[in-house]
């Protein structure tokens, strides 16, 4: 029997960086054997913009409406990707404190007050010192503990470029990665395998199987699978690859969240 297919990380038109109609995402999912997905639009804590909270409220309302409409055919959940939590505790407290949804992702797209890794020109800014800062701020995010899972660990590597990556010793970040994992595990929280890298030139998930195995060996149990779709046709993308990598890392299940509680799916 094939496992229940649930994509825990997707973006819709309520994200500033996506233009994806929610209903189109639902129709695509049903047509492609996807059993459910969670809409986890961006909410950034490094700036205080009232319109982003209005966007999240509108997203929640549409998800609730479509969840009822598609009940029995698709499990549609409402979540949020609350990023850069270490920038402003007051914003985190307000947004997290009033969050009523299924799933809360914590993530980090920038470090050291620099722009998002995706827009930095690394011919003018040094990559590795910023990567080091990223790991420290990721640990802070784990310690802040306003999340169900910490998303796409090693995200900056997507923007390093193949040549720079080949010359880097990523194992020097193993100790701090362990500290991040231990913090999450102690708090009963998880990580995700973000499979977006598999469909991009980077070619690997965030994080790789090696680090998923390390999370497992340290006692981690909660791992969600996320496509990080910003287009309908990426909902559920590379899901089977994610399952295979988790199995190889020692897991006999993956998780998704409903009403902030993990559900375990045998794989
Ligand atoms: Zn993200
Ligand atoms: Zn995302």
Automatic annotation (TrEMBL):
Pathway: Amino-acid biosynthesis; L-histidine biosynthesis; L-histidine from 5-phospho-alpha-D-ribose 1-diphosphate: step 8/9. It holds the Pfam family PHP. This is Histidinol-phosphatase. It comes from Neobittarella massiliensis. It catalyses: L-histidinol phosphate + H2O = L-histidinol + phosphate. Its EC number is 3.1.3.15. It is an enzyme of class 3 (hydrolase). Belongs to the PHP hydrolase family. HisK subfamily. Residues 7-194 form the PHP domain.
